[in-house]
Each structure stands twice: as C-alpha cells, then as structure tokens.
Amino acid sequence: MTLKTWEDVSKYQKEVSRIMINSQRLNRISHAYIFEGPNGTKKNTTALLLAKTLLCTNKQGHNPCNECHNCRRVDHLTHPNLFLIKPEGKVIKKDQIQKLIKEFSKASLEKGPRIYIVNEADKLNTYSANTLLKTMEEPGADIYQVLITENYHQLLKTIVSRAENLHFTPIDRDIIKQQLLDNGIVANIANAVSQYTVDMQRALEISNNFQMINIINLVLDIHKAFLNDHNSSVILFKNNSQEILKSGELLDFFLDLMIYYQKDVLNYQLRHLDSIVFEDEIETIKQLSEKMSQKYLEASLEKMLGLKNRLKFNINTKLAMDQLLMCLERGYKYATFCSSDSI
Ligand SMILES: [Zn+2]
User: Fold this and answer.
1) How far is the CA of 52 from the centre of ligand 1 (A)?
2) 4 CA to middle of ligand 1, Å?
C-alpha cells in the first residue's frame, strides 16, 4: 500500500502529516528525520513519500505528482538517488555503510537530492552512525536521511541530537477495520482482526491466513453450540484444535477471540452496543446474554484473562481449554457456575 499524498498520511498519522505539510510551506524540510513508533504505523511508506516529494519534478503544491519519471522510479525503488539500508543480521555492518558512502559519490547519481532511509536504525553502531552523519555534513551535500525505528530509546545520542523526531502512533482500530473491509474481508473477520492488532500489515496477513480464519469461525461456532442442547462446544473444539494446541500464537489468538466474544455478551447485557466486536452475531449474542447473569459473565471473563496470563507458563493447555469450555457451556446451558479453581 503506497501513500500518494500527505493527505493520505493524515488518515493514519495526523500530526506527522501536519508537520510535513507545514515544513514544506515554510521551506524548512529537515535533512535528518527520525521516524519512530510501533510496527505497522506507516513509517516506511511515509519515508518513501518524503523521498518522492523531494525528487518529484512536477510537484503539485506540497505533494508529488506520482506520475513523473522520478515519482515512478521511487515507487519501484529504482531511483539511483534513493538508498535503502536495513540490518544484515543483528547490526548494520560497517561495510554496508562504506558501500553506501561509495555509492553516494558515484557519477551514476543524478542531479538533485539524495535520500537514504535506514530501517531499524537502532542497529547502527557508533562508527556507522558517525560516518553517515559526516557524509551529510559535507559542504554542498544535498542529502536527506530518514532513520526508522521502533526502539527510539536505543538510538545513539549523536543521532538523536541531530535529527528531527517524528512520532508515529498506533493506527486507529476503525481505520484498520475499514481497510480490511475495503480489501474484501468479511465483517466478522475484519472486526475480530482489527481488535486483535493495530498493525496494518499484520492485520492483512491474519485476514488472509486460513488457519486464523478457521479459528475465528470456530469461536463463532462454539458460541452457537452454547445455545444448542444437541451440540457440545468441547467436542467442537476437540475436532478442530489440533493445530491450535500446537502453536502458542494460534492459542493466544483463540483465547483472545473467546475473550472478545464473552465481552460482547457482557456489553450487550450492559447495552454498550457500540463496543460489540462480532456485530454480525448480534442475535446469538443477545440470546447468550439472556442465559448468564452479569455476575457470572464478569467472573468468567476474569478467569479467561487469568488463563491468558497462565498460558505464558508451561501449563497443560488442552486440559485448560477443555475446562474453560466446559465451564462456559455449563454457565450458558444450565446457569451454573464453575468453582473458582476449575479453570
Ligand atoms: Zn512527480
């Protein structure tokens, strides 16, 4: 997903967009930026938009035209004046930087600004950081750098003191959800996934991962089984849980979804309808909310959150899940609640 304009950036990172539009208007674009914030907050695509903005030969106000030769070469990452660096292994190596400096001085470069974007800039060591900074400070050098990091506090002081810092905040869940819907993802999946992660890239990956989609559907089926005397949630889980129980990640996802659903039932009871995640299941949620008292719902939620914490330790997950489902099933079907030590 590329960002074409600074207005596009504004949808995800309002403050960053405002600052960049302003600094262009005042003709005060910095030569060194730090883009810092969690994964999936559009730091990379924003850095590429900055490169395009600097290299475009037919700028439209503060935006690149997205059509000229330069713009297209930035989009394809083939512009000779654009350099991308990321760690090879655990660090950004000395010879990576030396290679970059050499490239910088080549005649193959075109006129105009040169931009380098360093990914995981917290992995620059002192030598590499100083060498880069020195290059930039050569007289007449029209060089821009964007240093991208999720670990701002691990950046070297020399870097931090000479660069303008732009903070990228986690993207709003509603925006993630809308984007998933725009990508043709069905509502139940878009809702659940946008609740689970605010990392856009990760959200798209999950929405296209059949194992994870199966888990979402399993959670929906389990809750329907709670309402059906001929159906057992424990057996449903048993028939579908082989993969889940083998993977910490899938198990965590499963339990999170179970928690969202249980919260939905509680929220329905409390008439907090705006907070409901599985909107398309509202009829099932309504029926479930009539089966368990608020006190039981809250108590079971607490147990589930406790279980989520205990998953980090070496517990018998199969047994724990069976007990959880049995407990919920008993609560929904017979309005009896498990004793406090049974999950
Ligand atoms: Zn252009």
Assistant:
1) 7
2) 10
The rounded distance, in Å, linking the Cα atoms of 162 and 105 is 23
**51 C-alpha to ligand 1 centroid (Å):** 11
For ligand 1, the distance from its centroid to the CA atom of residue 179, given in whole angstroms, is 26
Residue 75's identity, in one-letter code, is D
Walk me through the domains of the chain, giving residue ranges and CATH numbers: 6-167 (3.40.50.300), 209-334 (1.20.272)
Q: Which residues surround ligand 1, an ion (CB under 5 A)?
A: 56, 58, 64-65, 68, 71
Tens of pLDDT along 46-101? 999 999 999 999 999 999 999 999 999 999 999 999 999 999 888 888 888 888 88
Say what the pTM is.
0.76
Q: How far is the CA of 73 from the centre of ligand 1 (A)?
A: 10
- Amino acid in position 340: S
How buried is 89 (Cβ within 10 angstroms: 0-12 exposed, 13-18 middle, 19+ buried)? Answer: exposed
Question: Separation of 10 CA from ligand 1 center, angstroms?
Answer: 20
